[in-house]
Amino acid sequence: MAASMTMGLPGVRLTPGDHICAFFRGARERDALLVPYLREGLRAGDMCLCVTDDPTAAVGELVAESASDPELARGRLRSTDSESTYLADGCFVIDRMLGFWETEVGGAVVRDGFDSVRSVGEMTWALSGRPGVEGLISYESRLNDFLPRYPLVALCLYDLERFSDGEIVVEILQTHPAVLIGGELVENPWYTDPHDYLGRRPATAS
């Protein structure tokens, strides 16, 4: 397992097990975080699992690049969309999405032999009004129990132009041990252990 991983941003290094909340504004800022993160992962030989609202817009050029660049071909990139993952069957189910990551990450490590995995989730699906999306925060908290099982870094993308409710932003912060903002990765003083956090929240359907 790699002791640390480069982020693709100056001075930012990652450690397997990191669960990072990345705040940005608009597609340009998103891509300025997302593309270097994935490109560095491919160069390092990582499995990169990317779930965004529109994969063609978010990482289309990188997918094409990785198919022809031997340096990027050291790793593998799987890019898919929120509708077929987070919102499969038209709703969000926490256990189903955790099962998706178990299958994809576990398969990459156990079956395919990858030493490190990078995942990305663009979280605007949670604003769709679909059944189950109220489970977003419980899902984020439960991810903290899942991540240590694998050599995995998880990057959760939150557009502050969309997530404008201050109370939700506070809850997002409470479920991520690290925050990436303004190009800096910082330890999150508001993070709350998932067992403590979920123990005081109303029950949410799994």
UniProtKB/TrEMBL annotation:
Superkingdom of origin: Bacteria
Alphabetical list of InterPro entries matching this protein: MEDS_domain
Boundaries of every MEDS domain copy: 18-177
Protein name stated in the entry: MEDS domain-containing protein
Organism: Actinomycetospora endophytica
